[in-house]
Amino acid sequence: MPEVTWNAAWDGRPAEYAAKRDCWLTRRRIRYVGDFLRVARPGDAVLELGSGVGDLLGALASDRPDLRFTGIEPQVSYVEYSEDAARRAGVRNLVFRTAAAEDLRDAFSPAERFDWILSNDVLHHVADAARVLNAAAAVSRETTRWLAIEPNARNPYSFLSALARRGERNFWPGRFLRLARAAGWSRRQVGFLFLVPPFVREPPDVLAALERRLEAVPWLAGGIALTLERS
Fold first, then answer.
1. What radius of gyration do the chain's Cα atoms show?
2. C-alpha to C-alpha distance for 110 and 121, rounded to whole angstroms
3. Does 137 fall in a domain?
4. In a domain, 70, yes or no
5. Residue 189 pairs with which residues in a beta bridge?
6. Are 55 and 17 a contacting pair, CB within 8 Å?
7. What is the structure's pLDDT at 8?
8. Based on the structure, what is the number of domains in the chain?
9. Helix axes 173-182, 129-138, angle to 10 degrees
């Protein structure tokens, strides 16, 4: 029987999970990914692996109507919730499909290719990272870039949280990058972000400013951001 992760515990209650994710960390993530896509050209296709309840893609698609967004997510209730939220918001450049990251090849036709790939707190859950990396390469172009944001195991809180939660794993970037090279990806950039914990909905200005100053310190940051490109 597969382990139940913290996220999967909300399956069947996507609206509650979406409300729980309405916090400063989510808004910081949206801005960070938005900056990553700033150089995307009109008509570019963006794929998110593990789109959850669709909050990230919904915000990005609303802000960038010139891009085409697709989210894949294995939990049916999350996909249905995401589709309904996009429909109610009138977002037309966004679609969702029910699929796991490992099954990308089966989710798209051979002609479908993406210029940008996003993944957020997904890779530390997958059992076979090499399979995901190869599948992502199969649906990408020669110029595709991939932004992967994961919990930073060098941060004591993130490290211990992964040990304490059922079904969670720590993410080790060195191992992941070795697998990435074997699948035809190379590292372009490594960054660190997030200092304010996810239970804070709106930090005071002084804390937000402190985060911007200190989150670049690897052992303080709650997240690590890897940018990959096709090699």
1. 17
2. 27
3. yes
4. yes
5. 227
6. no
7. 61
8. 1
9. 40
Q: What is the pLDDT along the chain (231 residues), one digit of tens a residue?
A: 344 444 566 777 888 888 888 999 999 999 999 999 999 999 999 999 999 999 999 999 999 999 999 999 999 999 999 999 999 999 999 999 999 999 998 999 989 999 999 999 999 999 899 999 999 999 999 999 999 999 999 999 899 988 888 778 999 999 999 999 999 999 999 999 999 988 899 999 999 999 999 999 999 999 999 999 998
- Answer whether 176's CB lies under 8 Å from 226's CB: yes
Q: What is the CATH number of the domain that holds 103?
A: 3.40.50.150
Amino acid at 17: Y
Q: What is the pLDDT of residue 2?
A: 40
Is 3 contained in some domain?
Answer: no
Note down the domain range covering 46.
Answer: 8-230
List the structure tokens of 106.
Answer: 């089966």
DSSP per residue, 83-127 = HHHHHHHT--SEEEEE--GGGHHHHS-TT--EEEEEEES-TTT-S
Residues 21 and 28: their CA atoms lie apart, in Å, by 12
Residue 1 tokens read as 């029987």
Q: Is residue 2 situated within a structural domain?
A: no
Extract the tokens encoding 59: 């915000």
Q: Which two tokens stand for residue 8?
A: 């999967």
